[in-house]
Amino acid sequence: MRCEICGKRIVGKPIKTKIDSSVMDVCKECSRFGKVQREPRKPRKSPVKRRPARSRGPEPIYEVVEDYGKIIRAERESRGWSREDLAERINEKVSVINRIESERMEPDIKLAKKLERLLNIQLLEKFEGDETDKIEAGGFRGATIGDIARIKRS
Ligand SMILES: [Zn+2]
């Protein structure tokens, strides 16, 4: 490759230089006469891969069922466990059990799941987005002790 202006042999890469509106391959010295053209930038791939927007709805939301305290207590008593027994089994303080059973404290999701597994009961209802109607339709599990207590009360 020779310089298009001075005809000198170019060592290495020629420099693309714009002179009088035409781009020429020239040597380093001659590139001073025109405007050096930069190599067109290669479109770089973004290093951060964008995840496609999820078409799924929002994450399911769990809610502790009504009468969770009565459900837990009934199940515990049916097994002949004291509150201390239950507390020990789920690695919680007895005071936590007291508060949960008297419904002064809702168990958090983690604790509720632990109790569900241990006692084989349902304490959590899953809400998916705004499809709250589904729970009425599909989540009916028959009358619970809580329901009966409520009927008596009214
Ligand atoms: Zn030259």
From TrEMBL:
<feature type="domain" description="HTH cro/C1-type">
    <location>
        <begin position="72"/>
        <end position="127"/>
    </location>
</feature>
<protein>
    <submittedName>
        <fullName>Multiprotein bridging factor aMBF1</fullName>
    </submittedName>
</protein>
<feature type="compositionally biased region" description="Basic residues">
    <location>
        <begin position="41"/>
        <end position="54"/>
    </location>
</feature>
<feature type="region of interest" description="Disordered">
    <location>
        <begin position="34"/>
        <end position="57"/>
    </location>
</feature>
<dbReference type="InterPro" id="IPR001387">
    <property type="entry name" value="Cro/C1-type_HTH"/>
</dbReference>
<dbReference type="Pfam" id="PF01381">
    <property type="entry name" value="HTH_3"/>
</dbReference>
<dbReference type="InterPro" id="IPR004451">
    <property type="entry name" value="MJ0586"/>
</dbReference>
<dbReference type="InterPro" id="IPR010982">
    <property type="entry name" value="Lambda_DNA-bd_dom_sf"/>
</dbReference>
<dbReference type="GO" id="GO:0003677">
    <property type="term" value="F:DNA binding"/>
</dbReference>
